[in-house]
Amino acid sequence: MVEAERICMRGGLVGRNLVEVRERRMWTQVRLAEEAGVSPTTVSGIESGRIGRPHFGTLRKLAWALGVEPGELVSGAGPDTLSLEWAMASGEEEFERGLEGASVEGLNSLSRDLGEEEGRLRRLYGEARDEEQRRRIKGRIRRVAADSGSVDASISIHPDTPGREEG
């Protein structure tokens, strides 16, 4: 395991959440630092895990700049919640395992959230001014579309889906 991975695992939850929320906004670390009134070194340190326990005032500034509650940066969403944040932060295997044990209500909710996210990303793509930002948005659209397909497949085979007969 490389040193960066070890550091990220130690202080990683806040850092991973911060990266996820920042990337959803399509912001760089520098942009977030400017919007929050903190140094880019602070943002980088939190995201990499070098700053494993950031001051709550700093988290509050970052959350405010990103338009989220501070709790979203410190909470650990897991498969029980099937949140959009969890879906975007999880790896492919973790995502599929989470879908396997989910309720049909949870799957339907996640499907709606992914559809809304895809619409939001398409609007952002239309507003993007440079090729790098468009490339990143396209990648996110592909990921959301793939996740939506997986959720829809899980709904169609779920034993509690109305109209599905057990064979």
Question: How would you summarize this macromolecular structure in one to three sentences?
Answer:
With 167 residues, this protein is mainly α.
Q: What overall geometry do the principal axes of the alpha carbons give?
A: globular
For the residues shown, what is the average pLDDT? Answer: 81
Count of discrete structural domains = 2
| Class from helix and strand fractions | mainly alpha
Extended strand count: 0
The portion of residues forming beta strands comes to: under 5%
Radius of gyration: 18 Å
Please tally the helical runs, counting DSSP H or I stretches of 4 or more residues.
9
Distance between the termini: 46 Å
Mind summarizing the main beta sheet?
none
List the defining traits of the structure above.
167 residues; mainly alpha; 434 Repressor (Amino-terminal Domain)
Written account of the structure:
This protein has 167 residues and is mainly alpha-helical. The chain has two domains: 3-74, Orthogonal Bundle (434 Repressor (Amino-terminal Domain)); 84-157. Helices cover 72% and strands 0% of the residues. It is built from nine helices and no strands. It has helices spanning 3-24, 29-36, 40-48, 56-66, 70-74, 84-89, 92-100, 104-127, 131-157. The N and C termini lie far apart (46 Å).
